[in-house]
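Entry 14. Structure prediction run on the chain below.
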Amino acid sequence: MLFSYMDGTVLKLEGGIKLEQYVASCTLGGLPCNITRDFDSFFHPYYFNCYTYRKPVSLPATDDPIGDEISEDDLPWLMPGLDNGLSVVVLTGSGMLDKNKGGEAEVLPGLYDAGGATAGSDGVRVMIHPPEPEWLPFPLAEGFDVPPGFTASLSVRPRRNQRIGPPHGDCIDKDPFKPPSVKPEVYRQMMCQQRCLQQYVADNCHCYDSSLPMPPEKDRDKTIETTFCRSIEFPPKCAEELDDIGPCIDELMTWYERVQCSKKVRKQVQARRGEHNRCQTECRAACNEVIYDVSYSMARWPAPGFEGDAVYDDIFHVNHFMDKFGNSETIRRHFNETGDRAKALQDFARINVYVADTEVNAHRNHLALYGSESAAIGLQLLCEFVDQ
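Output returned:
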């Protein structure tokens, strides 16, 4: 499990995969997606670049001689059935990390946590969630894993939960840990718990955990000098050859202590020890919420024989996937060195998402997808984590 320690913007450019190099193909009800328009980016310190697919309001009716647009009510993925849903083929990339131009192992900047629950995982992480802009995904706490060489089908069914509030019940509709400057938002128990956890980390470790919701700058504790617990800034002279490396070692140890403090506080809160039980007692269930029940099934993909050849042709010949990497010798060598089509496809995965019944129409404005890749992405559609 690799946590970044650098600024997110740098990692997006240096450590994360580009959207066009991640999504090999995308269709919505059999119609091609507009990758530039339909996907938003999201940075996560573990998964690096993640991408969210958001349903377009309308699609051009290219086969209609009149040229009218298809309205939102007519979009195919609002109808139930696998063939009316979203289908995305992504490159997991994990099979290519052991190679680069110099033949050396590729290194991503960060801190490796061998004891993490997802350490050593390979494939893609997928989440289904509401599309509100303020809705922050938590891929380490929610979602589904899709390994390379498989197709995963996710059947989505919306469900509304309505609970009784005081005095007969204990549900709530306001987040007690929401920073003052944050605009009104729909209450979500997971967000409340994560904000509570962040507050404990800040109070006890004097830094913020970048994998938890960050309060707006105006609401942050002004006494905290270091913004992120995993960030490290050596004095400029540490880049030079020095006889006295004491200051550099001191900075390294300070960074190590912050990391260990953050891990310790998180474990205490999750174990509900003493006063840390506050995150459970104050972050109660929402009085009114829409959630998505997901049925998940997998099959090996692509099938051998002519069906696998058809998939290969679609990715590499129809969509010209390798052209998206420019003149990268690494990519071309990886896909062409043996001429084995089955080997070339072993780092891809396909994700199908569709609604289970027509009742989803009542909640059509509340459906989005999340995902990512750690060598590079994610479907609020997709998250890919490379062999970490």
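The radius of gyration is 23 Å.
Filed with the rest of this week's runs.
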